[in-house]
Every structure is written in C-alpha cells, then in structure tokens.
Amino acid sequence: MEGKRENILVSACLLGVNCRYDGGNGRKEAVTELMETYSLIPVCPEQLGGLETPREPAEQISSDAEGALTGRVVTCSGKDVTDSFLKGAEETLKLAELYGCKKAILKERSPSCGYKTVYDGTFSGTKIPGSGVTARLLAENGILVYGESDIENL
Ligand code: SF4
C-alpha cells in the first residue's frame, strides 16, 4: 500500500483557482503536476482574510530610506487593508498546522504570498527585498516557503 503523501500548502491561484485580485488565476502546470507526488492544500490568504474577488490590487508600503516594509498594506486607491491581510495570514497558518504542512509553495511577489521579493507600494512594478504578510508568518513559524519558480528545490 502506498505511504501517506506529504501535505504541502499551495497558493490556490497557482492551481488555477480564480481567486486573484482581477478574478483570474496564475495556473502553473509544473505546480499542478506535483499532485502526482504530494497532497497539495490550496489556500488563498486574501480570500481567507475576507476580501472579495475581484478586488483592488494591494501592495505593502515601504517608507524609510532603505525601503523597508512598514507592515501596512494599502490598495491602489489608498484603502488600508492591513487587518484583512493579517487575518488571512493567521487563517492560512491555522490550515498549515491543521494539515501538518512543513512546506508551502506560494505565488511570487504577491503582497500576501510573495517570499523574499515583493512590490514596493508605489504600484509602479518596482520590486524590493521583503516578503508578503502570509509568507512571512509561515516562515516565522518554521514552514519552508518556495516560490513557483523554485519548486525543483522542494
Ligand atoms: Fe494567489 Fe495568494 Fe493572491 Fe490568493 S493571496 S490570489 S493565493 S497570490
């Protein structure tokens, strides 16, 4: 009999779920193919935080001279959605723990799911070092985070 497969948390948009801010998805075949080897647990932190779909794009705000992130998240029209992002991160961590996930494959550069590189809050496509709210919380809790272009290192 086949042994129990490892559970891995995955950004739902990478599996083709239309949960992205614009109502679309970011399906990646290489990620969906991992279902042959692992049990993938889909999550969308922004929906889990209570945000609707479609929704305005949001970015984390960087403020100081080094461009360090403040932890605040605002939409392109200036609405502060930090509380929803924090709630979504907490709910995602809850699911990761419930399913015993030691790894997560998260959408790169998202203000929730991006790991190590995100946009700088100017909505100009400028990237800076830093992680999304959920990716940061998962990493702080010992979960190994991979981007979709990094899955060969799983
Ligand atoms: Fe995808 Fe994460 Fe954005 Fe949801 S919050 S649409 S899972 S990148």
Structure, explained:
The chain is an alpha/beta fold and 154 residues long. It has one domain. 21% of the residues lie in helices and 23% in strands. It contains four helices and eight strands. The chain has helices at residues 29-32, 45-48, 82-98, 133-140; strands spanning 7-11, 39-43, 58-62, 69-75, 103-106, 117-119, 127-129, 144-147. Strands 2-1-5-8 form a four-stranded parallel β-sheet, with helices on one face. A two-stranded antiparallel sheet has the order 3-4. Strand 6 (117-119) and strand 7 (127-129) form a beta hairpin. Helix 3 packs across helix 4. The longest helix has 17 residues, at 82-98. It is globular and about 50 Å long. The structure holds iron/sulfur cluster. Iron/sulfur cluster binds at residues 11-13, 19-20, 44-46, 107, 110, 112-113.
Nutshell version of this structure?
By secondary structure, the protein is an alpha/beta fold. The chain contains four helices and eight strands; from the N terminus they run βαβαββαβββαβ. The chain has one domain (7-153).
Throw out a few tags for this protein.
binds iron/sulfur cluster, 8 strands, 154 residues, four-stranded parallel sheet, two-stranded antiparallel ribbon, alpha/beta
